[in-house]
Structure formats: C-alpha cells, structure tokens
Amino acid sequence: MKVFSNSVTYNYSWEEVSIANWQKYGPWNDKSAHVIAVDTLNRTVDPETGILRTERLITCQQSAPKWLANLLGSTDTSQVFETSYVNPAEKTVTMVSHNLTMNHLINVQETVVYKPINGKQTQFTQDARITALCGGWQRIKNNIEDALVTRFRENAVKGKEGFECVLAMSRRAFAEEREREQSGQLMMA
Amino acid sequence: MSASLAPECNEVKEPEYLRGNGNTDDNECATMFKDYQKCLQVALQERKIDKLLNEAREDSKEHDSTHLKRK
After folding, report:
1. Among all residues of chain B, which has the CA nearest to that of A46?
2. What percent of chain B has pLDDT over 70?
3. A43 in B contact zone (CB under 8 Å)
4. What is the dihedral sign for C-alpha B22, B24, B26, B32?
5. Angle B61-B67-B69 (CA atoms, 0-180°, nearest 5)?
6. Cut 0.95: pTM above it
7. Are residues A81 and A57 in contact, defined by beta-carbon separation less than 8 angstroms?
C-alpha cells in the first residue's frame, strides 16, 4: 500500500469553500479537464444533526501510462463513488471516495477534509491509500502503486489551481448578487 | 454545473433552483431532482454501473457511522 498525503491552505472562509466545493468541477474550473462528469445520486439532510450527506458518481477520463494500460487492460474512463458529509455545526466537509472501476485490481480510497483555520482561511487535507490487489510480483505491484501516486500528485496540483479559480469566481458571483439585491432595495425605497 | 455521464440526463440535470429562480417553499426542486434521478437510474443500469454502486454503498456504511455522528 502507498499513501499520498497533501494539504493546502485556501485564503477563503470555510463558508465560501464549502459552497464553492459543489462547483469544483463546473465550467469555472478549466484545470481539471479529466473530470468529465459529476452525477449526484442521493442527497439528504439529517434532521437531527443538520449534516448534509451526498452521494456522487465522478467520471474521469485520463489516459494511463502505456505499460499500465497493457497490464491492467484499462480503459481511459474510470469512475469514483464519493460520499460526502457537510457538518455545519462542526464546520467540516468530509469527502470519502473510492474507485468503482478496476476494483478487483486496485483499491484507491481517498479522504478529503475542509476545516476552518480562522474566519478567513480554510485547510484542505487529502489522504489517498492506494493498494494493488493483483497477484504477481511485488515489484509490479509497487510500480502500479507508484504510478497512481504520481497521478494523484499531478492531479492535486491541477486541482488546487482549478479550485482557486472556482473560489475567485464564486466570491465575485456572490458579491454581484449582493450588489443587485442592494440596488433592488434602493429602487424600492 | 458539471455534465452528467449520461448526455440524455443533462437537460433534467440543469435545475432552475441552482440558478436562484426556484422557490424553496414548494416541491419544484424535489420534483426536478427526482426526474433527474429517474433518468440516471436507467443510464446507470445500461452502463452496468448500478451493481458496482450498490457494492460501494455497502462498503461506505462504516463512513456513515463515523461522519453522521448521531447522538
């Protein structure tokens, strides 16, 4: 098993980050082109705790290195099942995901948490556990795991850049909306 | 708004309430989400993803007990 860990500080409040998170793979993000579809399967709010639980299916399209594709017979399209929990009382967003595709050969389990650092900053932590399940030489399993860790590292850089754009656009969109509301109120007065 | 994996579901995936035009007091949003889910269900069956999803859901139950924290 290999572990990929990553943490990023965003200079946006947790409230802004937790809302913009739903737009992460939308048109405001041109850096994460490998995420080609996001489908919300289920969404409920726990009346007792106020926790928003969401199930999503994330579809990615990214070509694997040739030797890996030959080995695993992989297609370029892969799917990830994500369950997320937005806890408004504790101010945490926790997203747990694992691979649906090729899950007899590899097991990828990722946990992402967004937590406030202070009123203006939010901490993102990412932890991915990658295990090659296929039989055979340990060296080959190591190579597969290493290739996936490399892919995670590359996508993490793009993910941060893309999300920064989404956060900036989201802040602007909310500011414009507030302005519109205020000018609307002035007209009424 | 991100695209759906099923192009035929994209139209029902574009809900008005996300554009701020919906009224949270009525069931409009819930109805739209149900229509989209219905469309998606067929698409997932066609692509044989539904079974994989059910297995994944079973596996993710432990996360519910950790993160839903019912008192």
Report:
1. B68
2. 73
3. yes
4. positive
5. 105
6. no
7. yes
